[in-house]
Amino acid sequence: MTKSFPVVAPERLAGDRYAGVSLRAWRWLAALVLIALAAALPFALSKYQVFELTMVMIYAIAVLGLNILTGYNGQISLGHGAFFAAGAYTTAILMHRYGVPYWATVPPAALISFVLGVLFGLPALRFEGPYLALVTLAMALAMPQLLKYFDTWTGGVQGINLVKPMPPPGLGIDRDRWLYLLVLVVLLLAMRVAANMLHGRTGRALVAIRDHPIAAAAMGINTARYKTLAFGTSTLFTGVAGALAAIVIGYVSPESYSLFLSISFLVGSAVGGIATIGGAIVGGLFIQFVPNLANDISDAAPWALYGLAMLLFMYAMPRGVVGTLGPWFARSMRQIQPHRAACAGSEEECNGRML
Amino acid sequence: MHQLLQQIFSGLAAGAIYASLALALVMIYRATDLVNFAQGEMAMFSTYMAWTLVNAGLPFWGAFIVTLLLSFLGGMAIERVVIRPVENAPVLAAVVVTIGLLLIFNSLAGWIYTYTVQDFPSPFPDRPLLGALITTRDLGVIGMTLVMLILLFAFFRFTATGLAMRAAAQNPASARLCGIRVGRMLAIGWGLAAAIGATAGIMVAPVLFLDPNMMGGVLLYAFAGALLGGITSPVGAVVGGLIVGVTENLVGTYLIASQLKLTVALALIILVLVLRPNGLFGTAIVRRM
Amino acid sequence: MAPILELRAVRAFYGQSEVLHGIDVAVEEGGMAVLLGANGAGKTTTLRAICGIVRSEGEILFAGKRLQGRSTEEIAGLGVAHVPEGRGTFIGLTVEENLRLGAYTRAGRPDANMQRMYGYFPILAARRRQQAGALSGGEQQMLAIARALMMEPRLLVLDEPSFGLAPRIVEDIFTIVERIRREEHVSVLLVEQNASLALELADHAYLIETGYVVASGTAKALADDPQIRRAYLGY
User: Fold this and answer.
1) What integer pLDDT is reported at residue C177 of this predicted model?
2) Chain B contact for A319, CB < 8 A?
3) Count of structural domains within chain A
4) How many angstroms separate the CA atoms of A235 and B201, rounded?
5) What chains are in contact with A, requiring at least 3 Cβ pairs below 8 Å?
6) Residues of chain B contacting residue A215, judged by C-beta atoms under 8 Å apart
7) Would you give the DSSP letter of residue A167?
8) Residue A147 covered by a domain
9) Residue contact C76–B163, C-beta within 8 A
10) pLDDT greater than 90 at residue A1
């Protein structure tokens, strides 16, 4: 029985043209329109809805981190909640104890999450499959316990209350919308960084290591270094998400970072598509809204519905929403206008021919 | 010294339960290359079935047998209906499905049976033996686990179906060429694992008391024990489970307060795995280039 | 004598790609037919189509029964024993366990059949308790054939039995196969790259090239044809 991870090939249809404009330009335009819509959206919604969408984006950043690890490196982690917590508590402690302004806590949170990821990535390298699952599971379980134990720093079971940040004066928007825009910027940045990393040399190396580790090593790829790097980068993303969550929610406590959070990230990653970047947003939507939806439908057994939703998504789209719809979409685009590379003639010849 | 021995023995008793559930995990892993994260909740659900039967008036061992049969059939049905669709899907999809199954069983049990903690009878009287070193109940639990291990071993070694299951797990394509219905073998594997899990649940319930969240911790330790022993080895599962039970007990008693007990116990297990990444009795996971 | 196996206008597919474009093959009852051709010609695909491992269209008749739509295990149960390329032995199990698995579809105790197999392949008797993975290539090939015979098949399908084996071993194996064919009354469909040896033993031969049967006839006729000899047999 072969089980393989999906590969999403970044096909460059750059040579194709629609209505005289290159596909690349169309893509940029679509992206800009989407971003503009996303930026304008909070002003049309209520404060609570804005908060919910902000959380969606935060979860998307966390899931993006997991995608880097699982999708491209083939390592399943049940422990990313721990790194989310690490970022959150870094922010909380810096703000609460040392009065660091909220925006300045994010880089240290990122750094600490990265370092922790590298530290745990090194021994984790030895493990495969279910063994790695256990190690990461242990991280997820250990974190809340450690947070409760070192209560002089973390405030123990009671957690830490944070002052919610004020938006910069003169902009004329309120706190919720300011935080939304801030998180949106970080999300876009994260997606850009992930895309650059994964569609380039690093990404190819990671995929090579995932699919043919021995061959990859034979080609001179330093497997250990890339795997550790993947782990660290993935935890960095998730840690940043945790820091943002602390800022937005204004409260951290060990209970919020239980095993269930780690599992939610994994489920969100699978539902969106583990080897995709856009899938992280779908994952964020799933994590934020499906449990509430399940609760609305059934008071008595909401988690049964949540579990059922997980099953149905996996049956219908085992490679995730973006993982399944993405290639389908790319195929239909190709049927409208065939891939340029298949034609070896000049531009005029190829444009005239149906391949 | 007496206390140390006492702790070791009660650790062995707890470990025997972890070992039973670990056996179920190993069965499914060998048959389908999957860790069934729902194994604990399935066991819990089976235990509730047994509880219902006992409350309806059945004698204990009668309820036990009926529960085993129902669990076997239930396990087979779950494999065919719930797991089959993702058998050839990416691993993560199957993992998510088992996690979903976990949530479904847990939630359903809470809904049907409520979260009230219930008593559950044990067939073994709780009398101290060997100068209060161990109780008859503990001995009974350890004995049941060993009996299961021996039966399982005999099944795989000496029966045609057992051999066919091993073949189907190792090389499904060749097994088909021999006329073996591989799908049916997988279903039987899940059925057996469910029955083993049911036994584990029934042994746990008298000690931890019956409630929907009874098996959560047990699954975790069983998972650790199975990996410690080597996820492909039934003997390893039992040895691993026993070691985990003893370690957990000793760590809790001598090393650290109950809050960090779990962390420390897991850390020790992982330390062992760092030295032997495939567990004590496991074989390396063969990677096809 | 009606053929025990007949393929009529069979097309086979890997996913969307058609790799066999309407081939006709027949194996006489009690006879031996060989499929020859270069790598990638479609020989193995033909065998896989017979055993239901790949999707196919057309007619595949075994002893009068249609094989299409049946699962691989069902086809094995009907009496088609397939020894796949690469042997397909259960390397984690012992020699004896491998043989027992061959008899899975047969009711009753397999001991008599096992003794007969040890008669054909004495080396297996000597190694009966060893792990199959520890056997040499030639021994594994013998084990694979023996396992197939444990099924008491009516048709034995062999995919490149000589692959990766030293010439001396190959001769031994082919001698045994010929003996088995006579003593067990089993029909044989053989896929081989080692054309000269195969043509000596077979009754009928088919030449397959990129999914088409380009030549067929008695083995002797194909062996004598100078064009075929030059193109495919190298002399």
Assistant:
1) 87
2) yes
3) 1
4) 37
5) B
6) 289
7) P
8) yes
9) no
10) no
Rounded Cα gap, residues B238 and B226, in angstroms:
8
Pairing of strands C65-66, A17-18: unpaired
Percentage, residues of chain A above pLDDT 70: 87
Contacts of A152 (CB under 8 A, 6+ apart): none
Cβ within 8 Å, pair C104-B171: no
Q: How many angstroms away from the CA of C147 is the closest CA of chain B? A: 8
Tokens for A131? 């063994």
Confidence band (pLDDT; 50, 70, 90) for A327?
Answer: confident
For chain B, positions 131-190, list CB contacts with chain C under 8 A: 160, 163-164, 166-167, 170-171, 173-182
> What is the value of pTM for the model shown?
0.85
Residue B123 included in any domain: yes
What domains does chain C contain, in order, with CATH numbers? 3-79+153-233 (3.40.50.300), 88-152 (no CATH)
- Tens-digit pLDDT profile for residues A116-130: 999 988 877 778 788
Residue A164: CATH number of its domain: 1.10.3470
Lookup: tokens for C111: 């001991």
C-alpha of C81 from chain center:
8
CA B69 to chain centre: 17
Closest CA to A268 of A252, A290, A243, A251: A290
Mean pLDDT across the stretch A290-300?
87
Number of domain units in chain B: 1
Task: Round to whole Å and give the CA distance between B115 and B214.
Answer: 10
Label residue B278 by pLDDT band (50, 70, 90): confident
Spell out which residues of chain C touch residue B175, defining contact as CB-CB under 8 Å.
101
Q: What is the pLDDT of residue C229?
A: 75
Residue A19 scores a pLDDT above 70: no
ipTM value for the complex: 0.89
How confident is the model at residue A2, as a pLDDT?
Answer: 44
d(CA A211, CA A275) in angstroms, rounded, equals: 13
Structure tokens at C177: 């196969």
